[in-house]
Amino acid sequence: MTTIRSTVDVEGTDFAENRESMLEKLSALETEHGKAIAGGGEKYVERHRKRGKLMARERIELLIDEDSPFLELSPLAAWGSAYHVGASVITGIGVVEGVECMIAASDPTVKGGASNPWTTKKSFRAADIAAQNRLPMINLVESGGADLPTQKEIFIPGGRVFRDLTRSSAAKVPTVALVFGNSTAGGAYLPGMSDYVVMVKERAKVFLGGPPLVKMATGEESDDESLGGAEMHARTSGLADYLAVDEQDAIRLGRSIVRRLNWRKHGSAPVAGYAEPVFDEEDLLGIVPGDLKIPFDPREVVARVVDGSDFDEFKPLYGSSLATGWASIHGYPVGILANARGVLFGQEAQKAAQFIQLANQTDTPLLFLHNTTGYMVGKEYEQSGIIKHGAMMINAVSNSKVPHISVLMGASYGAGHYGMCGRAYDPRFLFAWPSAKSAVMGPAQLAGVLSIVARQAAASRGQDYSEENDAAMRSMVEAQIEAESMPMFLSGMLYDDGIIDPRDTRTVLGLSLSAIHNGPVKGAEGFGVFRM
Length: 532
Description:
Elements: H1 13-37, H2 42-50, H3 56-63, E1 70-73, E2 89-96, E3 99-106, H4 117-132, E4 137-143, H5 151-158, H6 160-170, E5 175-183, H7 189-192, E6 196-200, H8 211-218, H9 224-228, H10 230-237, E7 242-244, H11 247-259, H12 299-302, E8 312-314, E9 322-329, E10 332-339, E11 342-344, H13 346-361, E12 366-375, H14 379-383, H15 386-399, E13 404-413, H16 414-419, E14 429-432, E15 437-439, H17 443-460, H18 467-485, H19 487-492, H20 505-516
Parallel strand pairs: 3-4, 4-5, 5-6, 6-7, 10-12, 11-12, 12-13, 13-14, 13-15
Antiparallel strand pairs: 1-2, 2-3, 8-9, 9-10
Helix pairs in contact: 4-6, 13-15, 17-18
């Protein structure tokens, strides 16, 4: 039997403490999400509504199929920066007329929907996900263009937005722009480079230069409608393919466009009739300890995420600090690599490399569940070849061609973050739990390393070393690294695609796997040189 047998004591004290710790983190996360949902604040929301306009999230809700999910991505982008949480744009995957689409909606209540540097980065990430997973792109447009005081950080890289649209079209993946308001200056190229364009009558304004700029540049007197109004573009310039009478009509037309795409997935369909996990997803709140130094068995997580809690473990007696095996999630086959006791040794690295090759041989997507402090250090391990073994695992991850999904459950430190397919290794999706932490090493270890180096430097110069200054330095460094390791900081930096409630993990993975299968799933035909 390959059904996992759970040993979690849901009535125990440890479980209760873990659950309480996770709920506290989720409460803090909900507060930060609330800032993104609130838009530009009550004043600007009210002004927007008085103009008879829908909020960006309301537009998305009307666009997607009734009662279908919306997988929002990077909702905490720009967290901890000078910019509004969420980066003035909403991105995510939604189902429109049965077709999974990447949807991006600028939030006009935040500085008129103007793009700041984090808006650009978040849009790039959405475009990457759309391209990798062959998702049609729908832009819900109402933006004043670039946030001019930060143009130096936007203008040059920002051209990628338009490049991505044209490349999507060339790859036969349609792009749609629904224009609800301003789309001016460089932003005019967003509808200009989309396959299908809908503009709202008396609302949409699309022009390279508005009346003031035209006046300054040419001396010509003009008005918004003659320069870039929806009717002008529908009747005269031909930029608008459809003229909508209002916002609801624009959304209806957008749905109609998608319905006529004759879209089909290139990946395999999920197996029908799969079973739900045997164990309750609520248990996921109490599995990860509040103190990440305390190990936990990732199989307990797997048991509450995969179909039927059925996990066919590969090499269970070898390299036991890493659990590897086969399962399915919502009918999609997956290979799973999950850190069991934090540290990765040579056996774990070799086991992972073989497992990744096997997944590529059978065109099976891979799921990485992170809780690692990195590869083991020390004389014994260096002499046994930990560097070449770790390099073997990283080589396999780097050259694997099947889709990867990463979930950071606990620690994700050092090169272990790389070997387990961290952000730099292009997983199709990367999500974090509120319990996750990621850095070059743990805060105490990093501060300790700096202390040792400083002591050695002082000794080499023949100077006394101040224990008081050392304690202050260690405390400062630990606090800094702790803050920079937290999931909200990393999510704000767009190092993940969102922090998720552990109870939603199965659903989020199912949505991600479904999106992945819009394109073909095919493994690598070769790998680089493995150092033996």
